[in-house]
Write the structure tokens for this entry.
Amino acid sequence: MGPSASLSLVAMFHLVRSKDFYEMETEYNKNMLPGKDVDVSLSLHINRISGVDESKEEIALDVFLHVYWEDPRIWILGNASQVELTWDKDPKFWIPDLYIRQLREMKVLTLFQDLASIRLYDNSTLRISIGATIIIKCDMDFVLYPLDVQTCAVDFGSYKYTLTDMKFHWRDDPLIFPSDFGDGFRLPRYVVSFVTDNRLNVIYYGDVGNHSTARLVITLSRELRSHLLESYLPSTLFVVMSWGSFVVMPEVVPGRMVLLVTTLLSLVTMFDTIRNNSPSALELKCIEVWLISCTLFVFLALVEYFIVLFGMRYDKHWRHKKHDLDGGGGAPSRLPLFGSNKVHATSGNDVSGEEDSVGATAKAQLPAPQQQMLMTNNNGPAQVVTSAGKLRFQLVARHVILYCGSPRGTLDQVSLALFPLCFVLFSVMYWISYINESRRKSLAAVV
């Protein structure tokens, strides 16, 4: 009988004619543990990644699972080092009740028969090997999309037997990959890597107690290059194009409006497309924050142009019309825009003198109709100071409007320097904060 001989357990029993073996056969109970503190070891041959379904949060793997344990009640009599037993879905010997906690579905691969085998070694160690496609449920968080790194922990253990009865661990060579594996399985959107956790992991199943598990950590690192070329680069170019409106003459309304509105609509369309094609999340995703910010930068450039148009129209029409309605050729008020109304607390006479001086100065610098109104309704220095404050506010607002509508494009010159600076600062803060958060979550998941 060689190592490749295929025998059923019953046939193997009849090969031996010893009294001890027949006694063992009659006393053998496949529903009982081989003993206390049974050691079950695992190894996994990962053939390929069938796919990653982000909407269902599932990973499909084609694997060969190997389970080893020792049962001293069974042994080989003779010189054979190992014996292949016939696979039976209802074996006549004890096997561990392997439970994969994150398992959604498992299909045993079949060609002419099920791809499964049972092997008995000369040291009473049994090995079950099964080829199957398993679908793993993985809790995914897409808040950092597309900078997210998904980490999925898969626990192999027992549901029936507690930690005192059975312990699961990985073998010395736990993971086996194809020869073309390289640094990891490369999918269209992910690079998948596998790591075994050799620590003693325990899971508590309520009243059943603590259970030992062998943990496999699957890491899905998203390919960022495609997102940089398809999303980040075009949106950045749209924002840069919007800055070109600052060098266009404000009087060229159609050209400047077409540039800004077309850029804004393109960003809105890009945002809607990416949001519909990306996985769902409870909060704004990383790429959505970027696209919304780019849209706001273009929108603010459009608002800046509206302010320029308003200032130009005020300078050309409304200011002269208001000047004519106020009485014609009188010179505009020269009340200081940022004067000081501070009163020194020296004595009562000084305070009253300074208040009278401020009131007289404000009254003298007001237009004639307002001076007449103050003469007919003179209720003291407080009213004069209030009227002077209102006039000062009107002058500030008028200067700001005239500054925005300056024919020399003063506001456009400031915006041409301010917008790129703000966008660069935003980009630096965005990438630093999200990359650090992605690394922090990756390390926390591994630990």
